[in-house]
Amino acid sequence: MPRSLYVFSFALALTFLAAACRSTHTDHAPNYLVAAIESYPLQLDPRYATDANGVRIGNLIYNSLLRADPNSQLRPELAESLRLLDDRTYAVDLRQDVTFQNGQPLTAADVKFTYESILDSNNRSPKRGNLKPLRAIEQTGAYQLRFHLVAPHAPFIEQLTLGIVPASSPANPGLSTQAPPGSGPFMLEAAEPGEQITLRRNPHYWEHEPPLGGVIFRMIPDALVRVLEFKKGNIDLMQNDIEPDMVPWLKKNTAADVGAYPGTTFQYIGINLTHPILQNVKVRRALAYAIDRESLVRHILKGIGTVAGGVLSPLNWAYEENIEPWPYDPERAKQLLDEAGFPDPDGDGPLPRFRLSFKTTNIDLRRRIAEAIKEQLQKVGIELDVRSYEWAAFYSDIKKGNFHLYSLAWVGILDPDILFQIFHSSSFPPAGDNRGHYSNPEVDHLLEQGRATNNQQERKQIYAKAQKLLAQDLPYVPLWWWKNVIVKKPTVQNFIPYPDGEMISLKQTRWAANAQ
Amino acid sequence: MKRYLLYRLALLLPTLFGVLTLVFLFIHLTPGDPVDIMLGETASAADRQELRQILGLNQPLSQQYRSFLINFLRGDLGQSLYEGRTVAALVTERYPATLELALCAMSAALLISFPLAIWSAVRRGRWTDRATLMFSLLGLSMPNFWLGPLVMIIFSIQLGWLPVSGRGGPDHLVLPALTLGLGMTALLIRILRTNLLRVMGEDYVQTARAKGLSERSVWLKHMLRNALLSLVTIASLQFGSLLAGSLITETIFSWPGIGRLTMQAIEMRDYPLVQGCVLMISLSYVFLNFITDLIYRWVDPRITYGN
Questions:
Q1: Would you say B175 and B253 are in contact if contact means Cβ atoms under 8 Å apart?
Q2: Cα gap A421→A411, rounded to integer Å
Q3: Given an 8 Å threshold on Cβ–Cβ distance, is A192 in contact with B33?
Q4: What is the 3-state secondary structure (H, E, C) of A392-432?
Q5: Given phi > 0 = left and psi -120 to 50 = alpha, else beta, which region is A512?
Q6: Closest-CA distance of chain B to residue A342, Å
Q7: Residue-wise pLDDT tens digits, A70-111
Q8: Which ipTM was obtained for this model?
Q9: A172 contacts in chain B (CB < 8 Å)
């Protein structure tokens, strides 16, 4: 036997030995809950986290001044009281019984530090842009602060949901492995990049001691494998990231407790209004009539969605309920296209009225949705050229305005001021995200009014008008609001669904008495 | 031999230089902007510009390329744009997982394919031969994205013998190694069997038999060794692709290897990390090629690398 063969066998034996020495993932302390996630969080530090899992897991570690409740209403968390001194000054009194997980008390200095750390351009925080309306933050006592704004700006209140880190936490700590301590119900126990993140309960949590010993977020990138792991019993909880097709299978083949709950994620078709055909509002309305949302939701989404009429979800306080979804009416669509000056050249024949491109990401479900929409539009004589791209290339094209039609979603929208960023004529890229170059002076005026008014009732009326105008002008064709799908073992109790997919209720989740 | 070693080392530099240049150009010229992905939707144009400046992305490409090469020569691969850690740390953290899986898949393939190929060649035309060929046809035609879930459903869900996914003890290695190794096993069986059948009729085999060597000796010393040469080439190429990390198998089995890291870096346009991953992959190819050359020499002593 040649020497190289010995070397090879030796290396092999070492590999097995190394593998044998590693602990297996299923060995975790009892009373821990295992949740499956699709992608590994990039950052947990609330000053940097922008990816969905980073934010959701971070919210279990960090508290913020305000926090949205299960009805998307902002409620005080670290703030004991929040007062508006004048139209541009907020005064905050902090709770005095909160300590960080390292034992230090949480004071106004920490809050001030957190916000100032984001404002410091050297720290490269992606959230700096959100704090633009903030002029200064002033500490008026050990537990008192004031936020001074540049001008009246009602949506600023949403920025008070930022997680608070201890003063002098290092900037840009990098991945989760070194996230600063928080004051939330769980603390970081271990981070294994690409594999899992383990949180341990914070026994000194100021609200109450969480019933769970901890939570393990296991990253399983493949949707089918997540379902198989659940079937095998290795996963206790999954939220979203579930292929609609697999829901019926799960219900039939496992004891899972499967539920779909109203969510705020809004799926739409974005339209380029500088395109000679699409700038005609009749064409846009024809698109809305020609897409059968009901059947898309029923057959492709398997019911995991609610057909959308306007842009803000029914869970938003500013939602305008007097907007009906566009009905499916291909005949009306054809008529509108004829009126717009795009007759069908050969009736029911193969020639289209016109061709448009439709951009989407290369995720399987998105492609299927795009193909179904293509088929529906074909029936009224519009030829769609579906192009799917990987995310970065897709996003780059959309940002540059390089599209006719595209489909994307809004995630985690709390304040209706999002409309300013998307539909105000001063928000053309690169200043904002009005990528389709929509411009209506009336809408502009309403959106300016909406952010300068602090009274919520007045704001609601202003945004109601804006939503009605948008529903007529159709700079977006609304598709649906995604539902949040929660799959859990029946023994997992007190997990409350949040419309934006937050998992904060893990702090009160417990095992049924007969489990474990 | 020493001269050969030096020669190979000298060859390493232009190879790496070429690879790094190509990767640098490809990733920078692909549409997509890391600043957009990092700063998200709400950042102002000024913030974007500022970050571009901090990261050096506003400089002309030639300038960026120069500083990249200079840093590389200093042994500095830079920092990941997102994770705030060095590229070297990220790559070395993930590489062992890929190496572990590749070694197991490769050894499974060798251990299964050798006996089956020899057996099949010895009993050519009988049902065992046909069964082996059938098996190898199946192995070649099954894509990993299908085979992976299939073995998972059979061995983890139905039989409950093995874990479904994730990296852990040796039992976690079995299914991904099987999935990765099966296609290779099938290929190696076909090549080795064909080679054995080819050398079977050679004069030196007749001679060996005529001079009274045992059948075992004829097979192992004369036939197998001569049939090995092209097998070594194929096996090393296959092993090389395993060392680059298999994206599909790593994704299906939630295996934290270099393949998935590379893919994630490309998706996020994490330029330094993409360059680091590709560097690691090409280094393993170069190293593997070198080992292959050494094995050639052992298989066929007529091969020399003196001059």
A1: yes
A2: 14
A3: no
A4: HHHHHHHHCCCCCEEEEEECCCCCCCHHHHHHCHHHCCCCC
A5: beta
A6: 34
A7: 888 889 999 999 998 988 999 999 999 999 999 999 999 999
A8: 0.80
A9: 84
